[in-house]
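#structure-requests
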Amino acid sequence: MEFLYLNELSILRWAHILAMVYWLGGEWGVFQTAYHVTNPALSLDERKRHMETAYRIDILARTGIVLLLPLGLHMGKIYGFVPFLEGSGIWWMWLFFAIWLTMTWAAFIKRETDIGVKITRTEELLRYPLIAALFVAGFMALGGSGPIESGMGNNWYPWKMILYAFALCIGLFLRLVMRRWTERFRILAMGPDAEQEAALTREINLSRIAAYIYWITISGVCFLGAVKPF
């Protein structure tokens, strides 16, 4: 326990970097696999196999993105940026994100069932107030008020929160697309459907644009945490 106490910040930083790696690398893997998922020249069984691969890669990215926030807030508490997490606040924060991560994994495990789709939708709905709270807290901190304390030389922290919230918005769109793919493949399993194929093509084209913005945003979050430029 003494080792954990003495190296708390370093261990959190290591886990934070690891989560970022899985987030960024996982999204690239899903992006590449999506080309085969939406390729009508392939058989439906083969496309479904690629879809399964995409989900198995994506769960690591989803785990990374969920863990980044509590790890960042925990380090922020140590830096003195998040005073409301002092005392029992840090444990309540970790409990909240443990429930969120459990829902994420439950949705992955049950992804081919109706209950899995419902869990996914519920988890998505929970992200909306979280995203709003991050935006509000970040901009309030930049204005010199609010629950996050920052100032000259520390504004990188609220900006990191704001970029992370923006990344969650993009992630919501990409999750919606993947959930739709699961539903569309159920329809395609019953026979060829030109409307569903057209929808898949439309969605992959939009997802490619979103993915490029996503990677730039993730890189920005990583840059702010590593360099702390302002």
